[in-house]
């Protein structure tokens, strides 16, 4: 596993086996974690002008790839283990909304492609210019119906995005999980609320889930919305919500909270943002707060995974290290 991007691997606990899939050396690789055997590799070299975003493994004859082809066209590819593409969808052609912003699709571990009842769910929304007006009705997700060979957009950006403020590029990195009821549950970096939609995209509810450690969100000044340094500082130092994780074993949610961190210490030196304080909000099945746990300081992560026993953390540091830290929240995680 040394050298792989820990943001782009998937750990899947199934009935009889634990599967690990990831991209390395332009290949999608599947390992059986129990036997530690590489079961197959898909070579992506022959895809031409291709930008890999993420993948979803269903079985050896069905591997979805979220990708950008020809620099601007958003595609979902369906591949076999031998590398054959036997179906593909140009998502740009399925978009019905006429919105003056950059349309994109994406998938990552905090907002993964998910396959339910012959439908594929993935992030599909719009990036606006910093400070640009954002109206209502901007969708946040795409549903690709494989049976009907059609797709449609669902959901809506929350009110906080319609105020004309720019909080940094991380405001587009929202999380989505799907709970045991099949509901789509969204958490946004700059909204205290968590939003729930049905499988068909109907709005169900918005629940206030405010952290004890965030009073307000700090926008970037209008004179600095195109300043790369200001954008990076907002990402690294300003308070925000990070990943939303769903613990399907206990029917609970974990919402990660990044606390505000001053950029400069008392000696005027820049503080390492990897030392920023953070906490975990433990929410019940109705998104009610059970407790908020302040995590150990100086212990930032690159990747979080929920297993059937605990929260597993891949810490920052040496990418070649295979160290995984394990945390149990009692009595909430049994």
Overall description:
The chain is an all-beta fold. It has one helix and 24 strands. The mean pLDDT is 85.
Distance between the termini: 29 Å
Mean pLDDT: 85
The helix tally amounts to 1
Structural class: mainly beta
User: Could you spell the SSE succession in H and E letters?
Assistant: EEEEEEEEEEEEEEEEEHEEEEEEE
- Beta fraction of the residues? 35-45%
List the helices and strands and how they pair.
Layout: E1 9-13, E2 18-24, E3 27-32, E4 37-43, E5 50-59, E6 62-69, E7 73-79, E8 85-90, E9 102-106, E10 114-116, E11 119-127, E12 141-145, E13 150-154, E14 175-178, E15 184-187, E16 193-197, E17 203-208, H1 228-237, E18 240-247, E19 252-258, E20 278-283, E21 289-294, E22 301-306, E23 311-315, E24 325-327
Antiparallel strand pairs: 1-2, 2-3, 3-4, 5-6, 6-7, 7-8, 9-11, 10-11, 11-12, 12-13, 14-15, 15-16, 16-17, 18-19, 19-20, 20-21, 22-23, 23-24
What labels would you give this structure?
24 strands; about 325 residues; mainly beta
A few lines on this structure:
The chain has 334 residues and is mainly β. Helix content is 3%, strand content 43%. It has one helix and 24 strands.
């Amino acid at each position: 596993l040394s050298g792989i991007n820990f943001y782009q691997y998937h750990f899947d606990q199934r009935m009889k086996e634990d599967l690990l899939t990831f991209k390395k050396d332009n290949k999608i690789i599947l390992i059986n974690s129990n036997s530690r055997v590489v079961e197959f590799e898909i070579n992506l070299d022959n895809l031409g002008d291709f930008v890999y975003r993420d993948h979803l493994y269903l079985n050896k004859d069905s591997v979805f790839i979220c990708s950008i082809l020809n620099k601007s066209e958003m595609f979902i590819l369906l591949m076999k283990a031998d590398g054959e593409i036997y179906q593909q969808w140009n998502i740009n052609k399925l978009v019905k909304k006429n919105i003056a912003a950059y349309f994109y699709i994406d998938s990552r571990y905090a907002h993964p492609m998910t396959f339910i009842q012959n439908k594929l769910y993935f992030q599909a929304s719009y990036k606006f210019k910093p400070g640009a007006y954002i109206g209502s009705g901007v969708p946040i997700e795409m549903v690709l119906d494989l049976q009907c060979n059609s797709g449609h957009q669902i959901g809506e950006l929350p009110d906080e995005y319609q105020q004309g403020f720019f909080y940094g590029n991380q405001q587009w990195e929202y999380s989505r999980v799907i709970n045991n009821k099949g509901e789509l549950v969204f958490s946004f970096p700059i909204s205290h609320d968590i939003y729930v939609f049905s499988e068909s995209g109907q709005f169900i509810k918005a629940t206030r889930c405010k952290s004890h450690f965030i009073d307000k969100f700090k926008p970037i000044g209008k004179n600095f919305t195109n300043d790369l340094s200001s954008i990076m500082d907002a990402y690294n130092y300003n308070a925000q919500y990070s990943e939303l994780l769903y613990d399907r074993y206990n029917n609970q949610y974990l919402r990660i909270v990044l606390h505000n961190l001053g950029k400069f210490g008392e000696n005027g030196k820049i503080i390492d943002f990897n030392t920023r304080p953070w906490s975990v909000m433990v929410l019940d099945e109705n998104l009610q707060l059970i407790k908020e746990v302040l995590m150990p300081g100086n212990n930032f992560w690159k990747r979080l995974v929920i297993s059937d026993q605990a929260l597993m953390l891949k810490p920052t540091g040496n990418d070649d290290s295979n160290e995984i830290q394990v945390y149990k929240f009692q009595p909430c995680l049994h």
